[in-house]
Amino acid sequence: MTPALAAIVVLAVLAVLVLVLRPFMPWRVTQFATLIGIVDPLFAVAYGMWRLWGGWMGWTDLALFLVLFTLPGLGVTIGYHRLLTHRSFETNAAVKGCLLVLGAMAIPSRPVDFAATHLEHHANSDRPGDPHSPLDGLLHAHAGWLLDIKRPRPRARLCRHLLADPVVVFVERTAFAWFGLGFFVIPFAVAGWSGFLWGGLVRMGFGNHLAYAVNSICHRFGSQPFETGDESRNNFWMGLLAFGEGWHNNHHAFPAAAYHGMSWRQPDLSGLVIRGLLRSGLAWNVKEPSPRRVDRKRRAVVSVPT
Question: Which end of the chain has a smaller Cβ tally under 10 Å, C or N?
């Protein structure tokens, strides 16, 4: 391990330990650890790009990056977001548990915290009370809002129903263990420190900041085919890279819709997986807006597309 990688690893370990022990930590310490958690994966991405300059990363490292980027990422977009937060479809306890565990492996956030913050965003989108509006600054919307450690989380007010679900409660209580499994244990067990670099740190650098960009870029750059009363935008590149989450204006127009991409020109990997679950009998009550409702919501004048 090089000194540069050792420093990146130490920062990551310290940040994770502080976040796990957050209830016992002074808020300033937690805030600083959160900042490290935001920027340290970017240091890892830069270090990884420097490593690539001198040679190939190896097929095992590439496989770890792709698998741990894709499967846990879909756990967030399908499990945390569309299933848990918006109840866009129903499934059995086993599928729900697998999706939520994958989501917990992707990000250091418990599922109910994620759902509460996201529902708060929809309730106040680009108005006072929105936790991450770019009207408060693009950097604030991207990741700066995470540093607002003292911001109350409306868990009981917005997510009481989730706290009564035994599957959700199980993942809620074990979320940081699953995160540690996906972030460190699996990549390190497969390929040592190189595996941790690509399957843990670099993967998180890409995954986290793509998720953050939905809050920032997709409220600033793109098209607005639907009237939503906020600044949500459709952005092709974010739709492609963030598993369909970049069709953000569509999502704000129809928050409960299971499919964010509304045509073949709008790639939505998360929606394709949900369609697969539906056809295999593992999902039901999949929500879609009616064509009449879509037409009624459509804007008379469409803003300049990406």
Answer: N
